[in-house]
Write a structure and sequence with these properties.
Blueprint lengths: L3 H38 L2 E2 L10 E2 L3 H7 L2 H33 L7 H9 L6 H11 L6 H8 L11 H29 L3 H9 L4 H12 L1 H16 L3 H6 L11 H11 L3 H31 L1
Antiparallel strand pairs: 1-2
Helix pairs in contact: 2-13, 3-7, 3-10, 7-10, 10-13, 12-13
Length: 300
């Protein structure tokens, strides 16, 4: 005979599984299964333009193909340099804006400027890239019109490698710097004002105060911003695809656009899947190195 106590104990055991069951099923169906299936595809010779009878197991050939593909290797180099440049500028610009808005000079108008600064963050990357693409237009773009008014020649922003890369970095900074600014602004609010007052009494200038008091106290916030921005910048796709489509040539192809074109433009699903897993390994390596550096700094 089942007693009330047994029913309650049974409910206590099964209740957690009942509540987390739908979430776990959702994760398995929409995350884990596609990842495992993609891993399976990476070992196949699978081209969408060919009949299904041509699909066969080819071992590590897809991985070898991607690792010897000049476009893919070039996209890795450009993506890494893009990520380092953008994250460094994000930290500098975001911190500068946060310090400006947190200063006594902006006390009355900080909310107005804060609203203006975060507006770019509200737009989707595709929308931002489309707006900037119109502004970069060699004939009708507002940037070239301003240059002509100042007496300079027009610039073909997306036809030259250096100009195209500069344009991509500029668009990314415009959309991502507000996020860094907000995090740093919140971090600055956590620093006790008494520490600044004591430093001023001791004769410390603003430079020494920032590096001696502010930066050590907000180091965790800085690590948070850098880690998030590294992962976001490595996954750059939509801005490049909309603004330059990887051009001129393949000089602005990121890892994401190269994988996408390999899989869906050239219909090589096997090689595209292999590239995706190589990309995953790269992200894991970069993340582990960064976390190790953070832990070493925290110990010091």
């Amino acid at each position: 005979m089942i007693t009330t106590k047994k029913v309650r104990s049974l409910s206590a055991v099964t209740a957690p599984y009942v509540f987390i069951g739908p979430s776990m099923l959702f994760i398995i169906v929409l995350s884990i299964f596609p990842i495992l299936y993609s891993l399976y595809l990476s070992f196949l010779s699978y081209n969408l333009s060919m009949p299904a009878t041509t699909i066969k197991f080819n071992g590590l050939n897809n991985y070898m193909y991607m690792l010897t593909n000049k476009t893919f290797l070039g996209s890795i180099a450009w993506t890494l340099s893009f990520s380092i440049s953008v994250v460094a500028l994000n930290v500098i610009l975001g911190m500068s804006l946060a310090l400006l808005l947190n200063s006594s000079l902006m006390e009355r108008t900080s909310n107005l400027f804060k609203t203006a600064f975060i507006l770019p963050m509200m737009l989707a990357h595709v929308v931002s890239a489309t707006i900037w693409k119109l502004m970069f237009s060699p004939v009708y773009g507002i940037l070239n019109n301003i240059l002509m008014m100042l007496g300079y020649d027009k610039v073909n922003w997306t036809a030259d490698t250096n100009n195209a890369r500069f344009a991509i970095i500029l668009v990314e900074l415009w959309g991502s710097t507000p996020f860094c600014m907000l995090i740093f602004l919140a971090a600055l609010k956590t620093v006790p004002k008494e520490l600044y007052e004591s430093a001023l009494i001791d004769g410390a200038n603003r430079f020494r105060t920032f590096f001696g008091i502010t930066l050590p106290l907000i180091r965790n916030f800085l690590a948070l911003v850098v880690s998030i921005r590294i992962m976001d910048s490595l996954r750059m796709f939509d801005i490049v695809y909309t603004l330059t489509n990887g051009g001129p040539g393949d000089d602005t192809e990121t890892i994401g656009t190269t994988i996408y074109k390999t899989a869906f433009r050239y219909s090589d699903i096997g090689a595209g899947s292999a590239g995706a897993f190589l990309f995953f390994i790269l992200i894991v390596i970069v993340t582990l190195v960064f976390l190790k550096l953070i832990r070493r700094d925290s110990k010091d």
